[in-house]
Specification:
The protein is mostly helical. The protein has a domain of 109 residues. The protein has 21 helices and 2 strands. Strands 1-2 form a two-stranded parallel ribbon. The protein starts with a helix and ends with a helix.
């Protein structure tokens, strides 16, 4: 029991601190791949030490200190290897302490933006990498997601994601990409940065694996990064829209589960539990967008979230506007997931039969089938509409199929409970 509790504590600390640890290490060693290896070494040290000595009072600080010491030792070894053989002994004897090496490195840092995690995001989103590699690497480094979690979030096979990450780290090292926020190339990397920040948020908002429905630390980190981006680009519509979208969605976090930790669907949530401050912040960020700006994907999604936030109840929500916004979003960003959400909005605006027709069309579309084969939300959505149409037996089968596809324990329990309820009708 103690060992299990310690392991859980280490996992929780790693989830919360890995991005900052890797960011600090990358600043010191200037190599993202090496930074991740050194951070993993610190994690291994925790797995070896903490079961014997107990979890430190400040576990995040312990992990950071251990990782930094390993990084600074790596810097020292690299400096020594670069010296001429005849000077090695003399230079080693007069080496400055590790703290001096770190101070010297920090003086060379870009002081315009001091956040190591944000630097890490922009480094991982360098144009030298293809778009899909940028996303996979950043989710790994910033979100602390496993290869399997990234594969599920991106609807791609796990070996493909693993190869992308390995190649991306190798490419960054070979290209000697600087560890910085590139003000001259900000626009070129911004779309990738926004995409990965939102994917980190989504993994926190709805965890793909594990026993917990959500991972609040990832939600908080995504919000923090998004707000930093608004400081860098205060007039960029899609940056403002993404922050608005995340704040509006995050406002519902407390209402998404009941007192037992069981999931609560949007239609059934107690809106009194929604966070008014986050709603106000989200609407304020949305209001900062210039009126004449053409709505992009994040603006459209933020407008959808605003419809929910402004509605006094689920039934009073402007579902026709939401359906129209999803239709435009699907036109701009064709995606099976967006098509699924559009179908569900249509079901609320025009009835479950209309939504089910769209879902059935999506399920049989050749281009969508590979991506949706392991996506549990499709059978879950079909089950909901079938249940609303009174087709209990069909709904039960779909709920059971969805439960078999999800790796999240809470979601599985909820889906099986709904399947059982259908069987009682």
């Amino acid at each position: 029991m103690v060992a299990s509790a310690t392991h859980d504590a280490i996992t929780a600390v790693w989830r919360g601190e890995s991005a900052r640890v890797v960011g600090v290490l990358a600043r010191i060693v200037r190599d993202v791949g090496l930074a991740e290896e050194l951070a993993q070494d610190a994690l291994v040290a925790a797995l070896e030490e903490w079961p014997r000595s107990g979890v430190p009072e400040r576990p995040g600080a312990w992990l950071m200190t251990t990782a930094k010491n390993r990084a600074l030792n790596a810097v020292r070894r690299a400096r020594m290897m670069d010296r001429k053989h005849e000077d090695l002994a003399h230079e080693a004897a007069n080496d400055p302490p590790l703290e001096a090496i770190e101070r010297a490195l920090e003086t060379a840092m870009d002081r315009d933006v001091t956040d190591d995690v944000l630097r890490l995001v922009f480094t991982a989103c360098h144009p030298v990498l293809p778009q899909e590699a940028r996303v996979a690497l950043t989710l790994r480094l910033i979100g602390g997601l496993s290869t399997a979690e990234i594969a599920r979030a991106y609807l791609v096979a796990e070996p493909t994601i693993a190869q992308r990450i390995v190649r991306a780290k190798r490419t960054l090292g070979e290209a000697q990409v600087p560890f910085e926020v590139p003000r001259d190339e900000l626009g070129a990397r911004l779309a990738s940065v926004l995409e990965v920040v939102y994917l980190i948020f989504n993994e926190g908002y709805s965890a793909t694996t594990g026993d917990a429905l959500t991972r609040p630390a990832l939600v908080d980190e995504a919000l923090r990064l998004g707000r930093l981006l608004t400081e860098l680009t205060p007039d960029e519509p899609e940056v403002l829209a993404l922050v608005a979208l995340m704040e509006l969605n995050a406002s519902r976090m407390a209402a998404r589960s009941d007192e037992h930790g069981e999931p609560v669907l949007l239609m059934d949530q107690d809106r009194a539990r929604w966070d008014g401050a986050l709603i106000a912040g989200g609407l304020a960020h949305l209001g900062r967008i210039a009126p004449g700006a053409a709505p992009g994907p994040y603006r459209l999604q933020a407008e959808i979230a605003a419809c929910h936030a402004r509605a006094p109840s689920a039934t009073a929500t402007d579902w026709q506007r939401i359906a129209a916004l999803y239709a435009e979003l699907a036109r701009q960003v064709p995606s099976p997931v967006i098509a699924l959400n559009h179908a569900m909005a249509v079901s609320r605006a025009y009835g479950p039969a209309a939504g089910l027709a769209l879902l059935d069309e999506l399920a049989t579309h050749p281009a969508a089938q590979p991506a949706l084969a392991r996506y549990h939300w499709l059978p879950s959505a079909r089950a909901d509409l079938l249940e609303r149409l009174g087709r209990s037996d069909d709904a039960r089968a779909e709920y059971e199929r969805a439960a078999a596809l999800t790796d999240n324990a809470r979601q599985r329990e909820r889906l099986l409970a709904r399947a059982k309820r259908c069987g009682e009708h």
